[in-house]
Amino acid sequence: MLFSTKRSKDINLLSKSEQSAQSTKSILVSTLICSLVIIFLVAVSVLVYLLAFSEERQSKQLSEQYEAKVAEWQRVAKPAEEIGLTKAKLAEFQQISSANQIFALGLEKIRSNVPSGVILSSLAIKTPDSLTLQASSASPLEAYQFVEQLKTEKDFFTQVVISSLVKNSDRYVLNLTLKLKTK
What we know:
Number of strands: 4
Low-confidence stretches: none
Helix content: 55-70%
Number of domains: 1
Radius of gyration: 52 Å
CATH architecture: 2-Layer Sandwich
Number of helices: 2
Structural class: alpha+beta
CATH class: Alpha Beta
Shape: rod-shaped
């Protein structure tokens, strides 16, 4: 019996009308289940479509807002950058102007303190607040007098240093380093 190819037939004790009703009932249930599955799939598809449409619309809206913000930023960024550059140039100009005023006042102080026997031969700017000066005199006393007069100008010079004092033929050559007071 295990390998028999004959099948046994079930005996149906239901009448034909009951069989027909049961068959119709099972067809209706199958049709209803299939219809519900199809309606469910259509509902899920419509829901997915609506969500995708909503996401696309929201994405487009965010993209437009982003582009508007970028356009606004670019409209404001260029003048802001120019204002920053102008402020930096103004600060640099003010610093240079201040340094030039201090330098001009320092030169005036040097000129006003040069004794009659001292001759200025050169002046060099080492840094914005540092000068080297070369002068010559007939005697070392005049050179030292000049240095001491410059040292009294504490409002303009923070440091007056003799770099060298050398006798050159008949004159003494004095080399000085002066630090200007910047503030």
